[in-house]
Write the structure tokens for this entry.
Amino acid sequence: MAKIYEDLSSLHRRIKLVQWVVIVLVILVAMFIWKMQVLDYNYFWQKAENNRLREIKLTPQRGLIVDREGKILAKNRASFKLSYIRENVKDRKQSLTRVAQLLSLDKQQLINRLEKYNSLPAFMPIVIKDDLTMEEVAKIESHQIEFPELRLEMEPLRDYPYGSFASHVLGYLQEISLDELRSPEFSGYDVGDMIGKTGIEYQYERDLVGRKGLIIEVVDSLGRKTGEVVQRSPTPGNKVFLTLDFDLQAKAEELLQGREGAIVVLDARNGEILALASYPNFDLNKFIHRFSPQEWTSLIQDQSHPLENRAIRGLYSPGSIFKLVMALAGLDSGRITTRKTFLCTGTTLIYGHPFSCWYEPGHGVVNLISAIQHSCNIYFYNVGRLLGIQTIADYARRCGLGHLTGIDLPGEKAGLVPDPEWKKKNRHEPWYPGETISVAIGQGPLLVTPLQVACLTSLIARRGRKTAPHLLLQVEKRGGVIEKPNSLASLNNDLVSAEEIFEKIITGMWRSVNAGGTGQGARLDGYDICGKTGSTQVISRSTADKLGGQIKTHSWFTGFASRDKPRIVVTVIVEHGGMGGQTAAPIARELFELYRRKYD
Amino acid sequence: MIDRILWRELDWFLLVLIAALTLVGVAMISSCSQGLADNYALRQAIWMATSFLLIFVFLYIDYHFLVEYSIYFYGFLIIVLGGLLLWGEKIAGTRSWLRISFFQIQPSELMKLALLLLLARYFADYRREKITTFDWLLVSGLVALPMLLITLQPDLGTALGLLPLYLGAIFLAGINRKLVVLVIIAGLVIGLLGWNFFLLDYQKERILTVVFPERDPLGSGYQIQQSKIAIGSGGFSGKGYRQGSQSKLRFLPARHTDFIFAVVGEEFGFLGVSLVLGLYAFMMFRIFRCGLKAKDRAGVYICFMVGAVFAFQFFINVLMTVGLAPVTGIPLPLVSYGGSSLFTHLLAISLVENVYMRRFIYV
């Protein structure tokens, strides 16, 4: 390509021209900057001193959370917060002593608080006290001149009018942490902002948070305002409508009062959750402040774990509830038919070990429907033996056990469906056939959440069609624009079995409640409730007897109504509540009754 | 492929200047990213180290080879850019990123290098005293095509980055006055068409704010005001390292990228400014000098266009921070934060060294 004798002289001439132009331009730029920095230094220095800009962020109103009928569950109230601006003081030690004195705060706590934010630039205000009383506000206002480092600001504070109502669903707020502040996910947030940490407050933070307002003020070197550059009003957060029904939720919480347990009420037709209660609960208004360490630790250390949402995080053995899955697996796999009978004498030997029924005299000859009706253990031991653990586990998973239901709440647990592979991996032991017999009646390592049981019930009620449980009804944006959640359309992995299989199981459930079965405590005249009870052994029966029956079994009931037009599903678990029929079923009955009165 | 003796022929002075400027950049980024979410300085330093290693690897390939095959490189990138427009994934509002397994690149940045090599190839055997209208139109087309594709992404800033290559090439090839007038008319026509049919509202707004800064009180007018106060109040010797940015520059959203020069001015005063200006002036001078030493036309064009790219961005950026040019979002090459920009510009320097190193060998 290249030639040896190349005449590049005209190119060289042009390059040299540009070289000179560049040099001259650089010198001109340098002269211009010399003028700015040296000759006009005083002018710019004055401007920098007297023309400082102060940026004030205005916290928007956090979006309201309301129930399906618009009843307000979370709102805001006006309050004052006090921030400390480190760059406004020379001698911080002295300043802190005076501030601590003024507000009767603990000085060491104040120092710790500021030290925590040492890595942040000194102009950023650090909140040192919130929800101030009017006396404190007056005191600070009257001393403002002596304390240029203090800044008093209005702030909307979260307010939960019903205190502990639906506390696990709504979730609580907490001050944003330093790590969160640094992550790109939280760009646009500032030190001291309160963010949703659990529940709906966390899940729909983006909708609830709103957009900050901004004031840029011109201030002089003493911090006095001399003008305003720009103002943008804050935009309130969106209004979040939940699927919760206030009355049902209130009733569910009332029924759980004084116990430990959970209740899920959902609409089988669309997966809308009408009530999701977990007890004991806690007062949400305890979490609206940035500073409440004592209440915190007492809640965390409480033996009854009030902060845990038992409905989606409580892991329980399903007990006899699991017999529904067994029946489905048996019929669908063709291993049993509805005509198949087994003899229950109250006890039986399987693989050389004695297994007993909960009803000591025995149920006599039982078929599938009466086995569900009376919750006969012997019948399902035999079904379990016929099916084997792998088939049982497969069907349990197809019914949604061992998987997250996908509810729009953080922290849901998936539970556990055991199989030989799981045991080998986690316990380094082979599967023993005897364990299959335990799993067959919902004991053993099998673990489920109340929400999963509710979904399982809904699956049976809808004859094999799955539901996606959710709490978000709709979001109302500014100007009344309604946005419905998408992606909540029906799940397409329905359990395809013959409808008559479900009809048989439902017949058993109907008889359990309406024909003198274990679930008769839930019976309601003129309402076709179908249900199943469960009582899970926390310890073996003989040990319980020795302890004088102090420790009772967990009490389960799950059911739906009505039989032909399934609409409502109710799942109840009461820890140490005794037999499922005694405690959980009557609780469910009250909820069915309330639902019928209100909606049917 | 490479003789060991060639290493001695490198322009080491230029490399030292580059390294010094990049290090100044890292130090300033560290100063003004206090309290920001990420460790930008560390990231920039890592980019710097890798890019410097790649400079030397890149030197093994004779630039004649690169120039020879530039047409394929160019064509390939045109196809990629077109494909991105059709099937690209939208990241941060534009379709400019190409994701290859775990890392992502901007083909539009690589286009700068491809176009540079292609123009060098076009003029490698061009011995006329002035460029003919036909050649000028052809070259304009070659530049306009990628510019159009990148503008549609939409990424106007990167598209404008191709302009100095074009202006440099046709200036070097020799333009006559008739042509200059034609260029201006064509520019006006394209501008009018673009305004009415292609530019998005936010881009129009951005251009309008350049002309009328008061349209956006939170935006450019305010930024320039802050930037000027920062530089002016720096005085002769500055406020000291890490002492300046806190109170004044914290309102500048792009202080570690577009306005980094203002941070230099505030913290190190006129002394710091002179140092950066001096380093830059020497660097540009050396790049052009490499062009004067090159043995053939392709080499001359490469060096000159690289110099033009640096000079164009340098002046626009510096004049912007002192309030003499509109805010356009063009960073200060090598100093401002930005990994892919640093990488591309260091590869450009590597091309210059490539030319300079092989100035005595005749093929």
User: Anything to note?
Assistant: Residues 9-39 of chain A form the longest helix (31 residues). Chain A touches chain B through 55 residues (CB under 8 Å). The mean pLDDT of chain A is 86.
